[in-house]
Amino acid sequence: MIRVSLHASNGSVYLILHIRIQFRRVIQRPSPPTEDAVVATHPLMRQDLIDYLASGCKSKEKWKIGTEHKKFGFELGSLRPMKYEQITELLNGIVERFDWDKIMEGDKIIGLKQGKQSISLEPGSQFKLSGAPLETLHQTCSEVNSHFYQVKVVAEEMGVGILGIDFRQKWGIKGILIRLKGRPIWTLVLKLT
């Protein structure tokens, strides 16, 4: 998985690539190509690609709407990004007050789950709501408003602010928490200007 974001700091612009590599324990030897793989029966056309993508589509009766909303927290006094300990406190506060279940990796909390929705930690001190698959925009609006209310109540008690935006004009790269989870994530930062 590769995720790309831009970051501006002290008049410079950075392109940030977050790369997650999943290693598999089973190693398979490559098999030699078959005749079918080598010889194409006809040139690949635009319609071939359309048909391939359409074959994976669900019927209209199975369509759902799923919300994904990223946000980051910051200390109100210094405007610095939240530390992992503060994010942990925020997540634990949501668990205690609003009946979410913790998602743990070892002894570290890396997310929350409630029904078919979840909150996960992201690089850069961000956390993300992944909403349940819902029928209408009104339901997603209600879900997001409920999530915002829960986060706001706990955050205000802690003295932290929350922004639903991925831009940190004031923070340098060194102040951003890059790796929260135990899975391998590499972050490549390229200075553009």
UniProtKB/TrEMBL annotation:
GO terms for molecular function: ATP binding; glutamate-cysteine ligase activity. Coiled coil: none annotated. Keywords: ATP-binding, Ligase, Nucleotide-binding. Pfam families: GCS2. One of its GO terms (biological process) is glutathione biosynthetic process. Signal peptide: none annotated. InterPro entries: GCL_bact_plant, GCS2. This is Glutamate--cysteine ligase. It comes from Canavalia gladiata. The lineage of its organism: Eukaryota, Viridiplantae, Streptophyta, Embryophyta, Tracheophyta.
